[in-house]
Structure formats: structure tokens, C-alpha cells
Backbone:
């Protein structure tokens, strides 16, 4: 039900500072469209990914949830969509998603999807992350103030364990 409510929301991208400059492109991305369409749109306008990551700092949770759901569904439906993050290697997703996860009062849906997104991209595009990034992410997930529910933490850890590059960093966590 939450998923459907989020998909039903239609963000007004021109009204948000983070997405004002690319609102005309953002409007073409539809959360319920086939993954291949959204992947093609994002690859054709790769800089939009940076705007999407900047939008993660917005206080309005609805557009943030919409973006997280878009990327979650996109990557779950089409694993070749990780190419978006490979193409945009210079656009950091670590800092914006970690900031969202560390935000006081972040809702559990956003935290869960942000942790999944970050961990999935870490495991599929490891060259964009360092061992310190993984260690910091694991510390946040396993800390006393973990932002995600238990299942979200488990899914995120499982995703990172899929990467040969970072498996050791996960296993060394207390």
C-alpha cells in the first residue's frame, strides 16, 4: 500500500531547488514506466542523477520517497540499469544517501530504500566506493541508532556481501 501511494504521488520538480534546473527532464521519468524507458532517459541525461542525489537532502519526504522507489524498482526490474551509476561514476551517491540515513527522524521507508540503494550500487559498481565508505556504512547500519528496521539492515548487508571487493570489510564488523 505504501508503495502504491508513493507511485501515485506526482512530484512538481520545478518547485524544488535541487531539481528546478532539470524539471523538464524529470517530468519525463515515470515511476510506473517500464525500466528500459527510465534507464534510457537517465542515461541520455546522466547529469540528472546528480540532481536526484541533491534532492535526497530535501525535507519534504514525498519526492525523496518517490526517487528512492524509482531507483529501487528500476534496479530490481532491470539489473543492466546499474550502468546508470557506472556512467555517472563522478556523481557521488554515497554522501547524499548517508546523509539521508543519518538524518534525525528519517522515516523507516526512506531509510530502508536508501540503505538498499546504496548497498546495491556498492556491490555492483565497487570502483565508485572505498573500503572506508563500506566501513562507515556498516557502522551506521549496525550502530545503536540504526535508521533501518532489521530486515532493511539484513538486505543491505546481504547486498554488500555480494561484492568480492567489500566482503572482507563486512565480515570484520563487530
Residues:
Amino acid at each position: 500500500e505504501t508503495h502504491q501511494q508513493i507511485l501515485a504521488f506526482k512530484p512538481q520538480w520545478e518547485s524544488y531547488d535541487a531539481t528546478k534546473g532539470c524539471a523538464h527532464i524529470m517530468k519525463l521519468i515515470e515511476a510506473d514506466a517500464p525500466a528500459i524507458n527510465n534507464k534510457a532517459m537517465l542515461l541520455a541525461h546522466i547529469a540528472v542523477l546528480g540532481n536526484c542525489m541533491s534532492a535526497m537532502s530535501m525535507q519534504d519526504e514525498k519526492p525523496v520517497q518517490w526517487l528512492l522507489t524509482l531507483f529501487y524498482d528500476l534496479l530490481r526490474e532491470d539489473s543492466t540499469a546499474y550502468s546508470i551509476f557506472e556512467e555517472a561514476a563522478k556523481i557521488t551517491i554515497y554522501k547524499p544517501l548517508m546523509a539521508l540515513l543519518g538524518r534525525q527522524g528519517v522515516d523507516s521507508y526512506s531509510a530502508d530504500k536508501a540503505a538498499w540503494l546504496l548497498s546495491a550500487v556498492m556491490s555492483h559498481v565497487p570502483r565508485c566506493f572505498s573500503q572506508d565508505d563500506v566501513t562507515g556504512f556498516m557502522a551506521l547500519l549496525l550502530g545503536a541508532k540504526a535508521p533501518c528496521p532489521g530486515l532493511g539492515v539484513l538486505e543491505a548487508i546481504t547486498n554488500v556481501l555480494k561484492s568480492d571487493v567489500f566482503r572482507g570489510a563486512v565480515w570484520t564488523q563487530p
Remarks:
- Residues 60 and 126 are 30 Å apart (CA to CA).
- The chain has one domain: 2-165.
- The chain has a mean pLDDT of 95.
- The longest helix spans residues 61-77.
